[in-house]
Amino acid sequence: MNKLQMEPEHDELTEDLRSFKEIFDELLDHIMIIDGHSGKVTEINKIWMSTTGFSRDEILGKHFSEVFCDEQISNLEELEAIVTHDSVVANRLLRKKDGTSIPVEMSLSMVNFKGQNSILTVLRNITERLESEQKIREMNKMLGELNTTKDKLFSVIAHDLRNQFNVLISFSDILLKDINTMPETERFYFLSQIESVSRTTYGLLSNLLHWARSQTGILVIKKEILIVNNLISSVCEELNGSIITKELLIKFDKSQTVIVYSDEDILRTVLRNLLSNAIKFSNRNGKIEINLTEFETELEIEIKDFGTGMDEEQQKMIFQVGGVSKKGTAKEEGTGLGLTICKEFINKLGGRIWFKSAPGEGTSMFFTVELPH
Questions:
Q1: Residues 6+ apart with CB under 8 A from 79
Q2: Which of 32, 128, 196, 213 could form a disulfide with 219 if both were Cys (CB 3.0 to 4.6 A apart)?
């Protein structure tokens, strides 16, 4: 009778063990039981096989130190000391069969397993957490750099704008006071300077606006069919005051009609910045060449000046915000923002931008624009 009464209890115990085994095997953490005397692995759950590539038989019976890549803990005494004083050791490296490793967080506790003192080891894969932490560090670094760049940029622009408006106010005052007695040539000089400074200030504010729009992600690309010759001629007309002041020759074949597929406003901004730079660093009575070269899928545009050129140090910084901001040949000011914008905009249009330069020999700026299919 007692035997019959115990059989249901035995069946229930067997069922409970089976259920616990299923739960044990389905856990997403790596579970390992280590014999407390020999340090050998006596049990693992199923996830080890799928993540490490080792079979169950290749792990069971091994010394626990063999499942790790690092040498942080190599003997049983060190492991037991951790159980006694600190239950968690972060960032251990679990060995994989292909030679790579899995970063894990390890927690330990003493248990009785099959009548033996054992160490229950729970290893949690922290790959995603480490990747997330790395991304957060990179984003924080990027945000820090952007804030530094922003502060530097606004400081430089505020200084430049103040200088530009001081010039405008000074020249306007002179004209107002002496307009009736001033010779025609002097009036023309002051008016041309006011026009030049006004255009430079407009370009500065325009660049700032475009840069802000690109950084905040609200810049919308609207590509259309454009006659690039007309656009180049229009930009040259915009900058005509500066061209006349330096008595520059613009060499450009207007009869060559080339059609591109691009955003007119963005392309105009790039052309204006590059041509403004060429004018700025050209010597009086110099020359600027604008060359168009068609390839199968793109147009290469070159704006070449024969002015001051750049040394190696300036070339390294050319596309960085505020990187190259030296004065022009007529003491023209700048922020170094223009070329940064050009690079960002050309990238957004799917093109490339590069340059060739040498001190005293001038600079050639190249960029590509998509041709219609």
A1: 34, 39, 64, 73, 108, 119
A2: 213
| Nearby residues of 105 by Cβ (< 8 Å), 6 or more positions away | 88, 89, 90, 91, 92, 123, 124, 126
For the segment 241-259, the average pLDDT, to the nearest whole number, is: 88
- β 249-251/287-294 pair status: parallel
Is the Cα torsion angle 129, 130, 133, 139 positive or negative in sign?
negative
In the block, residue with structure tokens 């239950």: 87
**Residue 56 one-letter amino acid:** R
- Two domains, one topology: 20-125 and 132-370: no
Amino acid at 360: G
> What six digits make up the tokens of 111?
């248990």
**SS3 state of residue 53:** coil
User: Rounded distance, CA 168 to CA 164, Å?
Assistant: 6
Which three-class secondary structure state does DSSP give residue 244? helix
Rounded to whole angstroms, the Cα distance separating 175 from 194 reads: 10
Taking the model in full, what pTM does it have? 0.54
| Mean of per-residue pLDDT scores for the chain | 84
What confidence tens digit (pLDDT) does each residue in 354-367 have? Answer: 999 999 999 999 99
CA dihedral angle for residue 239, residue 276, residue 278, residue 217, rounded to 10 degrees: -140
Domain 132-370: which CATH number of 3.10.150.10, 3.30.565.10, 3.20.20.70, 3.90.1310.10: 3.30.565.10
* Domain positions in the chain: 20-125, 132-370
User: Angle formed by the axes of helices 264-280 and 337-348, to 10°?
Assistant: 150
* Phi and psi at residue 227, to the nearest 5°: -90, 105
- Tell me if 99 sits within 8 A of 78, measured CB to CB: no
Task: Confirm or reject CATH 1.10.3370.10 for domain 20-125, answering yes or no.
Answer: no
Residue 98 burial class via C-beta count within 10 angstroms: exposed 0-12, middle 13-18, buried 19 and up: exposed
Structure tokens at 255: 């009869």
